């Protein structure tokens, strides 16, 4: 059976790439600069998935640091962003099967987009490191629009740009943020069972499909819901 959607919108971190090693490096350099202890990658991995600001808040809370909103937090965030940019080469690790899945979808005429909460200025260097410069027909980062996931607007913005309805598109992600955005947009959802889902229950998310490899999206499947 053919793939039942005309476009696929992919989350990035935890869905297409395993960026945790690089992100952990950036977080730990930030913590050390602020006088706190570094954390192991598994600990940092549990903080990833809702954007860089919440990532920093989780790291600071874990360290027992008290930085209220304002100049103190913004200075720490700027420090994280500097280290984050330096860590991009270590973030460029595609999960097995991702490149083949993207190529096969494209070969079937499916329009491919990237919909991530990663700050937009980091996306092009990362795609360059992966060799994916021409892979996506549309890209929305975490600060491309005033809204970000789990708001519906990033997903709807891409669908509208493609001239498609939300029901003709599939959001593919790994976390509750992706699921909530798809639900808000009334867009079908697929989830991967790896990534940075923390305690998110995949089976209760109402996904069209939960896969362990993105190539499974193209396997024979029931019609779109």
UniProtKB/TrEMBL annotation:
Pfam families (UniProt xref): Hydrolase
Xref: InterPro entries: HAD-like_hydrolase_sf, HAD-like_sf, HAD-SF_hydro_IA, HAD_sf, PGP-like_dom2, PGPase_prok
Functional pathway: Organic acid metabolism; glycolate biosynthesis; glycolate from 2-phosphoglycolate: step 1/1
Binding residues for Mg(2+): 11, 13, 174
EC number: 3.1.3.18
Molecular functions per Gene Ontology: phosphoglycolate phosphatase activity
Cofactor: Mg(2+)
Gene3D superfamilies linked: HAD superfamily/HAD-like (3.40.50.1000), Putative phosphatase, domain 2 (1.10.150.240)
Catalytic activity from the UniProt record: 2-phosphoglycolate + H2O = glycolate + phosphate
Active-site residues, record numbering mapped to chain: 11
Keywords: Carbohydrate metabolism, Hydrolase, Magnesium, Metal-binding
SUPFAM superfamilies: HAD-like
Function: Specifically catalyzes the dephosphorylation of 2-phosphoglycolate. Is involved in the dissimilation of the intracellular 2-phosphoglycolate formed during the DNA repair of 3'-phosphoglycolate ends, a major class of DNA lesions induced by oxidative stress.
Family of the protein in this entry: Belongs to the HAD-like hydrolase superfamily. CbbY/CbbZ/Gph/YieH family.
The protein's name in its UniProt record: Phosphoglycolate phosphatase
The organism of origin for this protein: Luteimonas composti
UniProt gene name: gph
